[in-house]
Amino acid sequence: WSDLSSWHQFVCLINRPTDTSLVIVHGGLILDLTGYLLFFDVTRPVALFVSYFHCMNSQLFSIGMFSYTMLATSPLFCYPDWPRRLIAKMPCCLHTILPHTQPPQESAECIYPGRRGKAASRHGLRQKLGAIFTVLYIIEQLFLPYSHFITQGYNNWTNGLYGYSWDMMVENGSETAQLPPELQPIITGTVDDINITDPLVL
């Protein structure tokens, strides 16, 4: 092995179909199954670090906003006060332009445990509009997944929401056409075509 470059060592390891299955397919499966680690305090930092594989997917595959959406929604698994704790650690010179970190104050419109709140005489326009909007939004979210009876047949003509579907990696044509040129020989098997002096490969 001493006379081979590190790149050729790597190619020899995954140059067989069985190796590709073990490394890429099963490795990706194990990586996807680590999502449950976000639920536990002890393993959450590790899971948040591993979730950055979405950055790699966004560069290797044309899957739209899926990767960025998954990264943006990762903090939902953290405690709800994480923005306040993060802002509190910022330098004092930035506290004037950042949101306040004080605990929320009591509101006259809320009912707290152990206290009797004043009964509202009547609901205002703001409360009514807020309730209507919330109900309509919930109905819309419940309806959209089952709306295929409206768009029967081939409903992928725009390919807009394809990046959010479970079969997002099943694309018409060759998947290797979407890969960077320096990575295509690994998938196609034409390893001899790789220029190991290319800085993009190294």
From TrEMBL:
Keyword entries, A-Z: Membrane, Transmembrane, Transmembrane helix
Transmembrane residue ranges: 21-40, 60-79
InterPro entries: HTTM_dom, VKG_COase, VKGC_lumenal_dom
Molecular function in Gene Ontology: gamma-glutamyl carboxylase activity; vitamin binding
HTTM domain: residues covered: 18-82
A Pfam family of this chain: VKGC_lumenal_dom
Transmembrane in keyword set: yes
Vitamin K-dependent gamma-carboxylase lumenal domain location: 127-177
Protein name per the record: Uncharacterized protein
